[in-house]
Records
---
Amino acid sequence: MAMGRLKTRAGFAVASLFASAMALPAWAATLGMPTDGGIGLQPAGDQMRREAAQFHDLILLPIIVIISLFVLALLTWIVIRYNKKANPVPQKFTHNTKLEIVWTLAPVIILVFIAAFSFPLLFKYHDTPKADLTLKATGNQWYWSYEYPDQHIAEYVSNPLSEADSAKAGLPYKLAVNNPIVVPVGKTVKVLVAGADVLHAFFIPAFGVQVTAVPGRINQVWFQTEKTGRYYGECNELCGVDHSFMPIEVDVVDQPTFDAWVAKHATPAPAAAPAAPTTTAAAVPAATTATATPVKAGAPA
Ligand SMILES: [Cu+2]
C-alpha cells in the first residue's frame, strides 16, 4: 500500500515534471492569467507566443536540464573519486589541450544551435505585420493610460479595481482594472508603448509581449488575438512605490462588441476644423491638445 502510494507519488512527480516541460500542465490553467501553483508558462493566447513557448519548452528547457545533470554528475564523480581518502596523492598537471578545446567548442556549438531557433523567432517578433488596430499605451507613475488614435478615442486612464470591487465582480485583485484595453478577436494589434515619467514595462504573458516603456521614445509590440476573454499583464519594470498597482487588462471581444465600445468612447470627429479655414497650421495641434487634456485628467467610465 505504502509502496503503491510512493510509486504513484513518484509517478506523479515525473508526470508533472514532464507535463510542465511540455507545457501541458495537469491542472486546468486559465487562459490569460496566472494559475495558483502553476510552474509552467501561461497558456498561449497568440501564435507567436505559442512558438516562443515551444522554443522554451522544446529547445531551452532540455538543454538546461541536460547541462545541469551533466554538471551534477561531474561534481558527484569528483567528490566520490577524488576525495582525500580515495585519492591521497593528487595529480600535479594543470593543462589538457584536448579537454580545453572540447570545453571551448561545446558551448559554441550549443549557442549556435540555440541561435538557429531563436533568431528566426526574434526576426518574426520584430517584423510587425500589417496591423488591424493600433493603440498607444503610456506608463505613468503609477497607472497605464491608453489611446486609440485611429478610432478617435482620447487618452484614458486605467486603474486597478479595489480589493472589494474585484471580489464583488469575481475578478482577480491587482489584475482587473476599471478601464481595460479593448480589442477585437482575430485581429493583429499593434501597441505603441512609451513612458511618461520613468521606465515602465508593458508585459502580457499570454500574448508573449514585453517591452520597456521609455520616456521620450516609442517602442512597439504586436500580437494577434485568437480567443475572446480577459488577458492580464503587469508593469514589470520596477518603477517606484506603486509599481505593483499597474496591472494591464486586455479584453478581447467580438467585432460588434468592439464597434459598440468604440462608438461609445470615440470623441466626435473634428468637424469644426474645416469651418475655420483661417486657422493656422500651428493652431490646430494646440486646439487638439487643449481638448485632449481634460479627457486625460478625468476618469472615463
Ligand atoms: Cu510601472
---
Amino acid sequence: MSRQLVVFDFDWSMADQDTDRWVFEVNAPEIRRWMEDNEDKIQFTDMIAHALRDAHARGVTREQLEHALRIMPFHPAMVRAITNLKAVGNTTFFCLSNANSVYISLILKDKGLDSMFTEIVTNPAEWTPEGLLVLRRRVDPNGPQHTCKVGCSANMCKGDELEAFFTRHTPAYDRVVYVGDGSNDFCPALRLRSQDLLLCRTFGGLHKRIAKDGGLKCEVKYWTGAWEVEEVFKTLA
Ligand SMILES: [Mg+2]
Ligand SMILES: [Zn+2]
C-alpha cells in the first residue's frame, strides 16, 4: 500500500464558500462592501483582522459569527469523499489555508471531519473573553518574511508551508494530491512532482494562473462540483 498525501485548500476548495467573506455577508454586509472596496489597498489578513474588530465594535457577537460558519455551504459529497478515502487507511490529510484556525476547526468539527486531518496550517486566531476574534498573519509582520517570488501574500507562502510539511513527515509520499482554487495555490502546485495530481477548481485564480504561466510538472484535473472530487477520490483508494 503506497503512502499518499491529500492537501486541501479550504475556501472554495473543501468548503463551497469563502469563510472570510461569508461571515460578513451574513452578519454585516456594510463591512463586506468595505472589504470589496479595500482589498487592493490592505494586506488581506490584516484587512480581515480589521473587519473583525469593526464588526465587534458594531455589536456582532461570537455566536453570530459561529452560526454563519455552521450554515456556510459545504457539499455533502466532500464530506463523503474525505471520510471514505480516510477509511481506506493509506492517506494523510493536510489542510493548508489562508483562512484562520478558528473558522476551520469549527467547520471541520461541525461536519465530523476534525479527526481526519493530521495538520491544519493557517493564520492563527483566538477569541477574547469579550467575543472579539483576534486574527494574526501566519508569518509575523515583525519577524523575518518569506522570500517567495511566485506571488504569495505576505501572510504566508503556501509553497514553503507545503515543503515544510514534507520535512516534518518523511519519508516522501508516493503521491501528493492537492485540491485548490485560488491564485495562492499556484505556488504549492509548482512544487508538485510528475506522479502528483492537482485538482484545480474551474473558477478562481488558480485556473487562470495555470493558463497564463503554466510550468506545472504534475497531472492536472479540473473540477467544478464536489461530487467530481468524490469521483476522483474513489480512484485514489
Ligand atoms: Mg481557496
Ligand atoms: Zn509562495
